[in-house]
Amino acid sequence: MDSFEGIFEFVAVAESGGFSAAAKKLGCSTSHISRQVARLEKRTGSVLFARTTRQINLTENGAFYYQQCKQLVTGLQQANERLNQQQFDLSGTLKVSAAGAFAERYIAPALMEFAAQHPELNIEIDFNSRMVNFVEDGIDFAIRYGELNDSNLIARKLISRSMMVVASPSYLDAHGTPNHPNQLKSHRCIIANNDHWTFNIDDTKQSIKVTGNWRSNNANVVLEACKQGLGIAYMPQSTFTESLAQKSLVPILEPYCISGATSWIVYQNKQFMPLRARLAIDFLLARFSSWD
Which PANTHER family match (predicted)? Predict the structure, then answer.
């Protein structure tokens, strides 16, 4: 086509469900909307809407065309916003939901760097592992760990971390060192998120059910309990960096540990995201792109 004229009006009608509603949304007359859509239909050679006296619906061609045009309109809106982003400071409130030691030790400091670059922006971080309602709670995005099952959300991979099994020297001296994951069944294990630990055994992933006298969904508490000799822990390797360097914990079962414990940036699947949220997500993705 030689022109994009009528695209915005067409998308507005499709999303508003009528010419009058689209006119109100775009701040123009209903007749203007009608003319623009009619011209667009003439140029494309397709009937885009099935009109009745009571309602208006997309035709099959119209539905296909709308999906393509919607991406164009969204892309143009975002391009305009990005073009102007250097002309003003980010403002408003960025609300983030996060959970786990990784978020506390690494995500929060990274967002502090982002806040320093945008002094007019307010940032709220809610450290809670519960499932959030992005609309009701006003959450812009969440940092989550593990497998994600909600298809209504967009999940972008932030990092993958190797898992590690560790124990204190005092625990191993008292109870012995397991040399196969199956032997964990006879050991005290410190349980974090679940009591089924996955290992690479004979080139396949196998789940081992473990038991123990200590359970916590807080990684720092699990770490401290492990250092105190209360049992064996299995968490991302980055959780144990300092303790391994100080030799207060010892890695075990290394050949069986899986890799790919993934942290995600999760947000609602919606057409238009506030600039503050989009830039914060881009900042985190860039910040951790080469994270080891």
Answer: HTH-TYPE TRANSCRIPTIONAL REGULATOR, TRANSCRIPTIONAL REGULATOR-RELATED
Domain 90-159+262-287 adopts which CATH fold?
D-Maltodextrin-Binding Protein; domain 2 (3.40.190)
- 148's CB contacts (< 8 A; 6+ apart) are 155, 264, 266
**163-258: what CATH class?**
alpha beta
DSSP assignment of 162-174, as one string? Answer: -EEEEE-HHHHHH
CATH code 3.40.190.290 region(s) in the chain = 163-258
pLDDT in tens, the chain (292 residues): 456 788 989 999 998 888 998 998 888 999 999 999 999 999 989 999 998 877 889 999 999 999 888 888 877 777 766 655 544 567 788 999 987 778 888 899 999 999 998 888 899 998 876 777 776 778 889 888 766 665 678 888 888 888 899 999 999 999 999 999 999 999 999 998 788 998 999 889 899 999 999 998 888 899 999 999 999 999 988 889 899 999 999 999 999 998 767 888 988 876 567 788 889 999 999 988 877 6
CATH 3.30.43.10 fits 7-86, yes or no: no
